Amino acid sequence: MSGAPLVEVEDLSLHFPVRQGLVRRQTGTVKAVDGVSFDIASGETLGLVGESGCGKSSTGRAVLRLARPTAGRVRFAGEDLGRLSPASLRSARRHMQMVFQSPFASLNPRLSVGASIREPLDVHALGAAGERDARVAELLSLVGLDPGAARRHPHEFSGGQRQRIGIARALATNPRFVVADEPISALDVSIRAQIVNLMRDLKDRLGLTYLFIAHDLAMVRHMSDRVAVMYLGRIVELASCDELFDRPLHPYTRALLSAVPSPDPDVEEGRIRIVLQGDVPSPADPPSGCRFRTRCPIATARCAQEDPPLRDRGSPGLPHQVACHFS
Q1: What is the pLDDT of residues 208-246, one digit of tens each?
Q2: 134 within domain boundaries
């Protein structure tokens, strides 16, 4: 890991209008992502965790500009993606790819596996026809599949095999940065570890940089160098993986980690589960002040009035950012 930021995200927001009535008049705004900032060093894996609906996937799509951000800036290798022309952005996308959540929905059922993997090579005009076919065979071998599978169609494969095909397609253009949007959540538990281990191996072999989006905290700990915790469109804690799991500072992070079972019977017996009260507020009408205050066990009147910024509470040489008045 070189330490130089490959991806820099600054105050990123992604809002969706709420429209009602015959004339589709805008009556509100869903703040899916609301002022998110982080960076990812070259060769690093940043895990992004949180409950369903907190904005993780929207963040990943906005970083790659698969959804146009409402505000903020994303730099990739020093280039501001928002300032690129359509042609330049298309060229830059060769170096930024995505592994989607559902291996069943992300592959075209009418195309053969080889055609799906070859498609990025055709779009970016990489190599001659024979070279592209050889590259497809190489990619299938890279993810642990028989190159002869290129002639088959997605319905002939299991979920885990389809996700391997999705990973091969994402790697076709030799990207530097990959957003993995919950790549294991749609798979059987018995297959998840295989896919995560494959992604770790590919990271080491190819020098990849990951934004790894997931809600399985055990897999996030296994995969990530640093972890960012999201709640209702914002990052509430960001630290190295070991630091965050060993010393969580935000009440929301503590609640998430308390739900993770331990394989050690003695530790599991002493685990105290923190059960949050109430439901996650709507991103169309987030609470004033701290967004977590409506479910926080230590919230005070100050939390309703002041929105806590993300500040460093770590020790020298070990950054640990948290957005809480009392951490």
Answers
A1: 999 999 988 888 999 999 999 999 999 999 999 999 999
A2: no
pTM of the model: 0.92
> Apex CA 23: angle with CA 22 and CA 26, to 5°?
110
Domain that holds residue 260: 249-327
How many domains are there within the chain? 1
